[in-house]
Write a sequence for this structure.
């Protein structure tokens, strides 16, 4: 009886599985049209995705792995072609597996450190929602600041396993160390858990390979680059690369044919930190006066500001601060960071010493 029952069960399982085995791979008109499908598979942490592209065969898909990687937003991809069917083997960032586990309530596929990262991410996302409410800008700013405060930049190690820890959310959240890919994966995870629409994008910035996020606010997509805002070897951070459109993104390059999203043409005043907070100045001298008064009268140790339509360096504002400080006769010291975006000079000033 047991043998008959086992045989019947095996037949039932086989019959039930047959429709899945016979399912057609989704078919797309172009490789670009397959992008949303690939992203969906990657967001679920899928190990591979199989699809067809009309009019494409193995001979012209051999060199498409890079584009497929960029469209899917994954760490790496290997492509295999059989006739007109493409199978992309995906090495997904850990943030995808963690997010899928949190969204479905099924954490069975996570290892111990991914599970730990999920707990950290959930807590930070909950804090972001509480801090920002329905204002996506404030939710995103909280996550931006949280990552800058908790993560230190760490370069890609020379010896690379399948995916170094610094390249993903586990390295960022559990170890507190990440390269640009780790910051990107962590912001993607926290942002999506907090109810934002976030994507990953890879390309180059200032001629060097780089990864960053795209964030949707007010119906349009903007660049969010926490890596470049987190000042290396410092407890302070900046806001130059938070929510910028193409008008301020001249240093960024990416493959338009494998766009994750279309970045807005112009940066919105209510979404860029310096315009939203009224921290735009007409000259380096005006910013220096403000920075000095903010430290003297309000005790502010970190001051931000932007000088509009002038390509300046850190020395330009530092010299002006020195002139103000000499007149004020207060013993003080400071550190200045400067970024140039779209004709603007964006500053972060750290007051290191004040008074005797």
């Amino acid at each position: 009886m047991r043998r008959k029952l086992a045989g019947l069960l095996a037949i039932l399982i086989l019959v039930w599985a047959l429709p899945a085995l016979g399912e057609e791979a989704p078919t797309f008109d172009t490789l670009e049209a397959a992008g949303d499908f690939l992203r969906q598979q990657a967001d679920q942490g899928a190990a591979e995705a199989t699809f067809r592209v009309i009019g494409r065969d193995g001979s012209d898909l051999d060199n498409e792995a890079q584009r497929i990687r960029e469209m899917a937003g994954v760490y790496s991809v290997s492509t295999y072609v059989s006739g007109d069917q493409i199978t992309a083997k995906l090495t997904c960032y850990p943030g995808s597996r963690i997010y899928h586990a949190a969204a479905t309530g099924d954490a069975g596929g996570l290892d111990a450190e991914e599970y730990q990262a999920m707990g950290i991410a959930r807590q930070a996302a909950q804090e972001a929602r509480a801090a920002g409410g329905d204002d996506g800008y404030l939710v995103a700013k909280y996550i931006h600041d949280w990552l800058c405060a908790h993560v230190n930049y760490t370069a890609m190690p020379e010896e690379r396993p399948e995916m170094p820890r610094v390249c993903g959310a586990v390295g960022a959240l559990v170890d507190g160390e990440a390269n640009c890919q780790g910051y990107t994966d962590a912001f993607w995870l926290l942002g999506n858990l907090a109810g934002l629409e976030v994507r990953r994008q890879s390309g180059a910035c200032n001629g060097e390979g780089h990864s960053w996020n795209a964030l949707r606010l007010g119906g349009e997509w903007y660049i969010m680059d926490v890596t470049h805002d987190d000042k290396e070897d410092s407890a302070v951070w900046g806001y130059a690369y938070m929510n910028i459109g193409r008008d301020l993104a001249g240093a960024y390059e990416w493959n338009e044919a494998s766009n994750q999203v279309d970045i807005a043409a112009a940066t919105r005043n209510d979404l860029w930190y310096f315009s939203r907070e009224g921290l735009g100045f007409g000259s380096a001298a005006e910013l220096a006066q403000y920075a000095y008064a903010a430290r003297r009268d309000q005790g502010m140790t970190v001051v931000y500001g932007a000088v509009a339509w002038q390509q300046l360096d850190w020395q330009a504002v530092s010299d002006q601060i020195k002139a103000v400080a000499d007149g004020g006769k207060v013993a003080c010291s400071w550190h200045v960071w400067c970024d140039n975006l779209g004709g603007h000079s964006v500053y972060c000033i750290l007051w290191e010493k004040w008074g005797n």
Observations:
- Confidence is low (pLDDT under 50) at residues 1-22.
- The chain is about 40% helix and 25% strand.
- The chain has three domains: 23-91, 94-275, 279-354.
- The radius of gyration is 24 Å.
